[in-house]
Amino acid sequence: PCCSPKCRFEYKRSETPSRYYCYCGKVENPTLDPWLVPHSCGQICEREFKPSCGHKCLLLCHPGPCPPCPKMVTTTCHCKKAKPVPRRCSAKAWSCRLPCGRTLLCGQHACENPCHAGDCQPCPRVSKQRCVCGRQTAERLCASPQWQCGQVCGKPLPCGNHTCEQICHAGPCGDCPRSGRRSCPCEKSKFTLPCTEDVPTCGDSCDKVLECGIHRCSQRCHRGPCEICRQEVEKQCRCGKHTKRMPCHKPYLCETKCTKTRDCQKHQCRRKCCSGNCPPCDQVCGRTLGCRNHKCPSGCHRGSCNPCPETVDVKCNCGKTVIKVPCGRERTIKPPKCKQLCSRPPTCHHPTQEKHYCHFGRCPPCRQSCQKALTCGHFCPVSCHDEALVKQTGLHQSAGPWEQPSEPAFIQTALPCPPCEVPIPVECLGQHEVSPLPCHSASPYSCKRFCGRLLDCQNHTCMKECHRVTEVNSSAAGNEAGPECSQCEEECTKPRPSGCPHRCVLPCHPGNCPSCLQMLKIKCHCKLSVLYIECLKLTCADLKEKELLISCKNQCPKELPCGHRCKEICHSGNCPLNCSQKVKLRCLCKRLKKEIQCSKIEGGQISLECDALCKEMKRKASEIKEAEAKAAIEEEKRRQQAELEAFENRLKGRRKNKRRKDEVEVEQSSWQKYKSLIMLPMLGVAVVMV
Description:
Residues 610-657 form a coiled coil. By secondary structure, this protein is an alpha+beta fold. It contains 5 helices and 18 strands.
């Protein structure tokens, strides 16, 4: 036997291993690694799981059998009706607990058992059915339509001597079983006899193998079973440690207990007279699984326990929504979302709570309107405040700044309803406006405007801030001032007649002001004289009368555009342009003159033209001017010629003595000779014209 602590398996001589492999069988003679399990190659096992599921073991090379497949697969139930759910591959077969519904073998009914694996059980229904031979009818299970009534057939056989001894059967009875060649009880001799005679014994030894399988029956040919083997033999016990002579049919077991360790490597065999092939450990493992809910139900084994095959129902709070998860996952997985409405009773004063889905923990705060009746008669419109969280203060006084502040504590308590906020139309004290005010503060108020009521003067209004007014005369209009209003202390500000600059001598009063009797000091139209006129006369006069009153009755001192003085009496506005002053009008040469009205000259209506004499004098004057111009030109030419000749003489060296002066005799022109005779008559004519 192999003495390896991880093996301890007894091999036959022909099966004794001659090569050393790791546990997974990939590496021959694996090297020792202190970080790995002894005899392990450190690679992934990759052996197929048993029973085979298509996956391979992903653990590192390990001793013992591979654990059940831990992969999660999506699989449906046995009857294929439920939706696929994720489950471990090793426990992927599951039942939805719904009726199976598959048609049973009877072909008439459906399986009513909960969803199950394998074939359906026989139909449990009862129906009337005939037996095989058709003699009897009885109520039997629908699953076994063929049955035998228990009566012997009794039909005569073809031999004519015997009847059929078969129990209720179908079809022909067949030939007589005693016809043809028959053997003796030891089956060594055969005889041909009529069916009415029995086969005799042959007298030879029986020689049949006994139950021990070693010896043969030593009796003579006989009917019935052979006796037990009574020969004495030397037997070895099952463990092979003791021998003893005893009858062959008795087994020999010694009292020695096996001291080998079973395959769990924890417990001894302790079986009496063990043959060496110790059975698997019959004790339960009992170790707590990874789920921490169950213990390992398998027999005592080596290595880690298999994952828990159980599934756990994770329910919502109301329990109507359920999901199945592998055992142990219920602590980390979130509960399913339930679509059912929460059925908890309300904790506030409302008869029903707001609709919300099933949940864990406390229900959310009620958001319905409070609707409690307030003292004013209205209903509280705010959200329900029966379970409000209120922060508690002053419960713990810190010992000093070094102490960490504790988290604030909240208590759940019912708060009183807030003041009523329903808008109520309320009129202000002075009856100026109607404003909606909250019900809890609905009382007459001051709108901060001026009172505005008409005072006794009938001209001004009360300037006090909006206040309560006592109505003295109930029949009077609502705009009359009351005793609480202010008294008018203003001067009379009524508009004065047009042109009156004086104020009313009375204080602010109702009705019209009295006539103004004061004198006005004003200047006349020409602004030269000061006039004193009674204000009443001036303001009551029309335009013509005002024009006469303001006039000083003297000639207007204003100057017309023509330069003459206005001939009108003192008047307003611009002076008239039709000047009547006589002025002298002359022709262009100033020789002729005529007296004409000034306004006609300014308008360009009359002009004085020159006569023939004036034209003749103009012609002569022009001739004289031309002659003078020609004489001046000739004189300039002679002067320039004389200067040129003098310059040339100096250049030629014809200088005379310094004391002798150059005398250049210049001949006088005709203009110089006769200009005095011409100019004297012209000056005389000019003087006459002026």
